[in-house]
Design a protein that fits this description.
Chain lengths: 380, 256
């Protein structure tokens, strides 16, 4: 389990190490054919800032070689905003007095039709953590409703048990996103004082449970801005590296949810700029030529229009981050504020105008035959 | 030049192509038309088999092209067979590029699952072209279960590194009774020409054309390289020698 790897490191020591890196470390990292963890550290360090243009060119070329000139588009489908956790940065936090809603079967289908009409084939199901109302049974039911409509189903819900994942994957679940939020145990405790989510280690081992259950793809990420983003990104990359070697049949993606400076929970010193986000994305690509890198509508139009050529392989567009937000009840409260509010059509036109193809479909239900349970070949 | 025959079908072009990574379907269409390619592989996961207006398929509906559906994305024989049956039904062809690469990072083919799936698919009436490592024994085993060709890799897919497996490709070409198509890793027309000079029956190229600044020109460049390489093979290249062979110092005394 990743916890054993994680425990060999100390947050403060890693942080000091990154900030102590110098120009020659960065140059050495850039010259190599294959970059390891120490090179990734150099590339995300402040010492790499003067090399951003070169890093961007490398990242662009590596991404084109592997993924071509294509961008995969997906949309989130929020099923519920009920949540028993207190996450001080999240709109759905238990202590926020907002109207709670969990979509009914009919409402799920109404939202799904709206997404189909926009052209989506890949969707991401999102819920809060409310095990009684929105537990595994609810999710299973949602997958059964949606499977006939879409080519690719992903979800971002509370961490589950291995057996629960094993139950959902044969229902057409392909990808599971589970962000550690922060790998800084101290900050984690501050931001998650209550609810099941307060258990840092349970969350940390979630990708292991997913790997064992045979998930097709696992999405990782740190919520950038909760603690030092460089140190968080080091641990996220370490996590990725461990998972790739352990569950070698699984695909991986990394997302970059960034708390923007306007959001009041962000500590000023932890705040990440667009320039730093670009540095991080390029560093990931140079470190790992094959991992999928994803950017959401949290980021601005200008940033998204430019980043799509520099390392990103998938993005959401036209997103509503509230249950019922597409068709059922578009006015309800959002989980986070969407910055790029353009429609799917506008974003896809923008992508094409940059000389890239919009990839609506990159999976097929045929690849997950309903009759066969996923076999885990690599017993760990 | 000799035409290439696979499972009774005659090809005048020995350049097979792929459809991924292009900046748009129309660029893909133009580049593949220009390349002269007659066999075009398309990933099942990319096409909407339920949609007759599917963007990729629409751009491939030319007489020049025969479709070669591929199973890229499956992780084992069971999934491959399932996907193959669906492809046959939806795309109305029993040709199949069998790709089973459970490792999503380097996309290296699983020899055990590939052999298992090939055997079953041949029995089900498919014309199977399996993507495999440049493993001569595996290629013979695949030939024995009835695949229509073998498609050993030159280097990891999308790597553009050329014929890193050269020594093994030579053995495969020497031993094979079915056509050998060098697939994956061909990054430049010179690599394609080298494979053809070696005696490969065809090559399959995707990334090098799709990712080029000008995919259409690159398609033409590959067409020419494949033709040149094949022509050179048929014309029989001279032997490469480390030293000159002008005189016969050891046996010249016989003539004295």
């Amino acid at each position: 389990m990743f916890r054993e790897v994680f425990e060999k490191y100390n947050w403060e020591e890693v942080k000091r190490g990154i900030y102590a890196l110098q120009d020659h470390h960065v140059r050495a990292a850039l010259e190599k054919d294959r970059q390891g963890m120490e090179d990734f550290m150099a590339l995300i360090s402040p010492a790499a800032v003067p090399y951003l243009e070169r890093m961007a060119a490398m990242s662009r070329d590596l991404t084109r070689k592997r993924f071509g000139r294509t961008i995969q588009l997906f949309a989130p489908l929020y099923l519920s905003n009920e949540c028993q956790n207190i996450c001080t940065y999240c709109g759905f936090s238990f202590d926020n007095r907002i109207k709670r809603r969990t979509l009914t079967d009919q409402e799920i289908l109404t939202e799904a039709q709206a997404l189909k009409a926009m052209g989506y084939e890949h969707i991401l199901l999102v819920t809060g953590e409310a095990a009684e109302r929105v537990g595994v049974d609810y999710i299973q039911n949602a997958l059964r409703l949606l499977r006939p409509l879409f080519s690719h189903l992903a979800m971002e819900v509370q961490p589950l048990e291995e057996e629960e994942y094993s139950r959902l994957i044969p229902e057409g679940l392909n990808t599971v996103l589970v962000y550690q939020e922060t790998y800084d145990p101290v900050a984690y405790k501050d931001f998650h004082p209550k609810g099941k989510k307060a258990n840092f280690n349970y969350r940390l081992n979630t990708p292991d449970r997913l790997g064992r259950a045979g998930a097709f793809k696992i999405g990782l990420g740190a919520l950038l801005g909760l603690s030092d983003w460089r140190t968080d990104s080091f641990f996220n990359a370490l996590h990725l590296d461990y998972l790739e070697k352990t569950y070698w049949q699984t695909k991986y993606s990394v997302s970059f949810p960034r708390l923007r400076p306007a959001e009041k929970v962000v500590l000023q010193e932890a705040c990440m700029s667009e320039k730093e986000l670009l540095q991080l994305i390029c560093a990931y690509r140079i470190f790992n030529g094959e991992v999928e890198l994803s950017i959401s509508t949290r980021e601005s139009e200008k940033f998204r229009d430019n980043i799509l050529q520099l390392g990103i392989t998938s993005m959401s567009a036209g997103s509503a981050t509230n249950p019922g937000g597409y068709a059922v009840e578009p006015q309800s409260l959002e989980q986070f504020e969407v910055c790029d509010q353009r429609s799917a059509k506008q974003v896809s036109e923008m992508i094409r105008s940059k000389g890239y193809e919009v990839m609506w479909k990159d999976w097929d239900r045929a690849y997950q035959p309903e009759s066969t349970k996923t076999e885990i070949i690599n017993a760990i | 030049m000799e035409p290439l025959i696979i499972a009774g079908k005659v090809f005048s072009s020995r350049l097979f192509t792929g459809t991924g990574k292009f900046s748009s379907s129309s660029v893909m269409e133009e580049a593949l038309l220009a390349s002269g390619s007659e066999l075009v592989t398309v990933a099942l996961k990319r096409v909407d088999m339920r949609n007759e207006q599917d963007d990729i398929l629409t751009h491939l509906s030319h007489k020049q092209f025969s479709l070669l559906p591929n199973t890229s994305g499956v992780r084992n024989a069971k999934e491959a067979v399932f996907a193959a049956k669906l492809a046959r039904e939806a795309l109305e062809t029993n040709w199949l590029k069998l790709e089973i690469h459970p490792d999503p990072k380097y996309l290296l083919p699983d020899p055990i699952e590939t052999l298992k799936a090939a055997e079953e698919l041949v029995k089900l009436g498919f014309i199977v072209l399996p993507y495999v490592h440049a493993d001569p024994v595996l290629c013979k085993r695949l030939e024995e279960v009835g695949t229509a060709a073998v498609m050993p890799l030159g280097s990891p897919i999308g790597s553009n590194k050329g014929l890193k497996t050269l020594d093994f490709l030579e053995i495969i070409i020497e031993q094979s009774k079915v056509p050998v198509v060098v697939d994956a890793g061909i990054g430049a027309p010179s690599h394609a020409a080298a494979a053809m000079e070696l005696g490969a029956d065809a090559v399959l190229v995707n990334t090098a054309i799709a990712v080029a600044e000008d995919p259409i020109q690159m398609g033409i460049a590959f067409k020419m390289a494949v033709e040149a390489g094949r022509m050179a093979f048929e014309a029989k290249l001279g032997k490469i020698s480390e030293h000159a062979e002008a005189s016969s110092p050891l046996t010249a005394f016989l003539e004295d």
